[in-house]
Structure formats: C-alpha cells, structure tokens
Amino acid sequence: MLNRYPLWKYLLILVVLLVGLIYALPNLYPADPAVQISSTASGAALDQERLDRLTQALEDKDIAIKQSELDGNSALIRLERAGQQVAAREIIDERLGDAYTVALNLADATPGWLQALSATPMKLGLDLQGGVHFLLEVDMDAAVEQRLEANASAVRDLLRDERIRYRDTSIDGRAITFQFANADDRNAARGLITDQFPDFEYSTPDTERGASLTMTFTDQAVQDLQDYAVNQNLTTIRNRVNELGVSEPLVQRQGPSRIVVELPGVQDTAAAKRIVGATANLEFRLEARPDTPEREIETLPFRNDEGRSADLMRDIIVTGDHVSSASRSFDENNRPQVNINLDGTGGSMMSRATRANIGRNMAVVFIEHKTRTRTVMEDGEEVEKREAYTERGIISLATIQSTLGNRFRITGLESASEAGDLALLLRSGSLAAPIYFAQERTIGPSLGAQNIAQGIMSVEVGLLLVVLFMLARYKAFGVVANVSLGLNLVLLVAAMSLLGATLTLPGIAGIVLTLGMAVDANVLIFERIREELRAKMPVQQAIHTGFERAFTSIVDANITTLLVAVILFSIGTGPVKGFAVTLSLGILTSMFTAIMVSRAMINLTIGGRPLKKIWI
C-alpha cells in the first residue's frame, strides 16, 4: 500500500524527536551569574552562619540574590543580575580577607533530572555572553636575546669546567662575543664549544688586545626559535586560561607572531589581563662571594623592600621552566608561601648546586618582562613606540642549611593573592618570550544580552515569515511543513548542545539561514506533487512520486551547501566556524525532518486512504 511506513520507522522517528526534545530543554534554563567562595587556608572554615552574614551584606548593598548554597568548605551565591558580580566579589573580599578565594562564575541552572541524563545547554560565545578579546604580540627580539643569554651562561659554565680563561662576554643583536687573553685560549674554546652549539656560525674578529670569538645565530636557528616561542606561548596561555576556569575559551595563533585570546563570560578584565599577559619566571641564584670577579656579579633589588639590594652570581642554578607543580599554602606563622616541585633535571641541578654551597645564601629572583610606550619625534611628528624592558627583583634570600632536592618552598611573599598568582604562573608554565597586548576589546554582559535578544528576534521573525508563506502557498501541506520546521529547530538546538558547540552571533545567522533553507526540500516535494496531480495522476500515487523524484534534487542541493560549510569550517576563524557548524548541523536536521518527518505525518494522516482531492 502506498504512503505507509512500517512500525519500526515510526518508532525510530519518535525516538529521535524525543531525544532531541530532552537535550534541547536545558537551553530554557540559562546559567545564573554567581560568586564562588572557597577557603585557601586550613582553619578558615566556611559555615552557614558566615554565609548568611555575607548574603545579608550583599542585600544591604542592593545586590539581588537568587540563591546561596553551601557545599563542604565552599559556597556559591547565585545573583539575579550579571552586572553585579564584580561588586559582590569586592564586598565579599573585603569581609573575608586573604584566607578565601572569591571567583566569578556561571552556575548551571539545569534541573537535576536533565543533568542525570548529561543534558547541558549550549555554550555562548563572546559576542553573546560578554567577555574580553585580547590580541597578543610575541616579542621575537626578546626571544632571541633570552636564548642568547642562556647559551652564554652555558658556555661560561663549560669554559670554567675545562679551566679555559676568558675575560668578558657581550651580546649584540644575534651574536655572543667572548674575549680571551690570547689566541691559544680562544682556539681551545672554539674547538670545545663548536660541536655542542651547532646553531651558531663562528668567527674570530680582530681585536687590539687579546683575542675574541663571536657566535652568531644562523637564520634557520632564529626561524626555529621564533616558531618555538609562539607555539610554547600558545600552550602556556592555554594552560593559564584553563586555570582561570573560563567556559569555552578561544586561544589560537594568528599570523607569524600573534595570538588571539577570547574569554567569554569574564568580567574582571584586569585579573584576566594580569594572568594571561604575565611573563613572570623565577631564577635561583647564589649570592656572590666577596672575591667574585665583577663581571660575574649582578646587583638586584628586593621586590618588597625598597632600598635593599644584594650582589648575586650571574649564573643561574635553575629557572621556573623546571617547575613541575606549584601550589599556594601558609607556613606555621600563617604567612603565604609557594610550595615548589621540580622535575628530574631541575632537582638534580638544585641538589648539585646546594650540596657544594651549604652555608651560603641563595636568592629567589622574580623576573617580569614588560613593555612601555614612549613618544618620540620622527620627521617632525610625534610617534608612539613600544619598547620592552625587564624587571628583576629578589623575593627571598636565605641560607642553604642542607642539600635541597625536588621539593622546597618560597617565602617572602606579600599576600595570599600574590602567592596564588605566582603558583598559577609557575604551574601553567613560563612564556618562552615576552608578549604585549596589541589590541584589547571588552564586551559587557548587557551588550551580550542585547545581542541574544536581537538574535532571538531575528529567528522569530524569520520563522514567522516562513510559516506564513508555507500556509498561504500549500495550505494543509503547509501545516505539515511548518511542524517539521519547528521540529528541525528543536533537533538543531539539541545537536549543538550534545556536541558542545558554542553559539555565536554568526551562529544565530546560520540558524536563520537554516530555517529559510529547511523548507526548500518541502517546496521541491510539494511542487513535484502538484505537477503529478496536474498530469491527472491519482492522489496517493502523486504523493509517493513527489517524494521519490524530489529526493535526488534535495540531496544534491544540500550536499553542495554542506561541502561549502565544511570548507568554511576548515579555513575560517572563530565567528566563521560558528556559522559553519550551525549551517552544517542545520542541513542534516532539515533533511531528516523534511524527508522523513514530513512524510511520516502525511502517511499517518492520509496515507493509504482513497482520496480524490488534497489541499496543496
């Protein structure tokens, strides 16, 4: 019998629609703006009484609270408005102090029974949720200079181990120059280091006194170093962003030396900028002895004690690159400290250095690469130029009491927040080269809400126009097409939620386009049925033939569009990819609803019946 589906096909369609409905439902429960509180010190308990006092303090400042929850030693305060998160955190920080961590958060509002089915809402992009956009520039010149300094230190260690005397070391551009007392020492040094440092070209320029050896970075080595610096910074920034707990962040390379960072939902831009852009690292150095040659000494100030300084060895025992883990805690006097674990190589280096220097002072040096902008005159015009500079300061200077291994602690920090930031930076890895902010853009939550409202309005208007057109053009069959269109929207939202896709403003444009394209298949089918009816074909035969003959055209048209969407996704950036994902999923769901769901509804209503006329 024509236009009848077997039972299993009806059941399959019903199951798909039910699953789609369930996994689309969480999008009716948007996440609540919230403030999360957790203790950072032992003994800093968080109980219901203290939580009640905090909520009362917020209400006294006219901050609307939706709900407060206590879970063990942490609490979550849900707010009515996202714009009040920063003010709420400042109030809580003032009352609790450094013993607690207060973070901005988005609390899931999905009902428990949907969470039990792993149903979650779509994630919103930067343009819908609000947040910050950073364009970071990697300082390639500084990357080369840092590598040269590290190599110069390694060469000095090698020369000392082999008892080859040198006078001085200097770095200029891409070259390191060593000064020797005579040509014999220079030739011995060249024979020693040439094989161990293959990335350099070696020359022996003439000098008035003594002899010199110049090591110059090759072009290929510079290119390899620059690629490494960008890729390593990319990995480090991703680790830092993950530590911030941002939902669906975007961190990707742009061009040869730039990195794009987008943090949806972040309102505290200062904190995000401080963590993302920080180029902090640590160096562990020995304090210089009174008889140490001047060329091997560097005088550095203390970070938290103005006017005080110490003479340190230029050679470095170990850097923060060898830190495998770092965490904040408090010592026996409740002062902040950072617990450090070194990797195997770093532990061996630390052990070897401290074993031979028990009783000598060792300094922990905090290094931060920064940039500043100054105005200069060029051709009679004021031009702003950005220049990089490095700040080095001693965190602590303590006597080595015994041999240190992989684990030790850093004290001398001003506050728990400073200790927490330092631990986060060390834990996530140091940057291979300094970076600076080439561009910064902030999208407030109110603008994101406005974009959502306008996006929803565009979907509603587009859907209404399509519905009215289909009803006017195809009458009863237009009702079938409109029901399929609504189910298509539900399945599209469910698919994006299941796949964890991020909805952006271009993604909403993709949904609107999908709604317009989704009825194309129905139009092809219904027009084919009309042609068959005009050719005096029986009604049931005309319906069957219309679906069968339109199928090839529908598949051809949708596959072409799907290929374009795949190409957009493969070569596009964030917004373009959002559009491509929505368009691709919309094509698949529209083909399912237009071909299978529409026909199932027609089969159930008029399939197999002796009809002489239909409203189409």
TrEMBL record:
Domain SecDF P1 head subdomain: 300-433
Domain Protein export membrane protein SecD/SecF C-terminal: start-end pairs: 438-602
InterPro entries the UniProt entry points to: SecD, SecD-TM, SecD/SecF_arch_bac, SecD/SecF_CS, SecD_1st, SecD_SecF_C, SecD_SecF_C_bact, SecDF_P1_head
Any one GO cellular component localisation term in the record: plasma membrane
Record has RNA-binding as a keyword: no
Main localisation: membrane
Entry GO MF terms: protein-transporting ATPase activity
A Pfam family of this chain: SecDF_P1_head
Sequence ranges assigned to domain Protein translocase subunit SecDF P1 in this UniProt record: 230-287
Residue ranges crossing the lipid bilayer per the database entry: 452-472, 479-501, 507-529, 550-572, 578-602
Location in the cell: Cell inner membrane; Cell membrane
Superkingdom to which the source organism belongs: Bacteria
Boundaries of every SecD export protein N-terminal TM domain copy: 2-104
Listed GO biological process terms: intracellular protein transmembrane transport; protein targeting; protein transport by the Sec complex
Listed HAMAP family: SecD_B
UniProt xrefs under NCBIfam families: 2A0604s01, secD
Subunit annotation: Forms a complex with SecF. Part of the essential Sec protein translocation apparatus which comprises SecA, SecYEG and auxiliary proteins SecDF-YajC and YidC.
Function in brief: Part of the Sec protein translocase complex. Interacts with the SecYEG preprotein conducting channel. SecDF uses the proton motive force (PMF) to complete protein translocation after the ATP-dependent function of SecA.
Family label: Belongs to the SecD/SecF family. SecD subfamily.
Protein name: Protein translocase subunit SecD
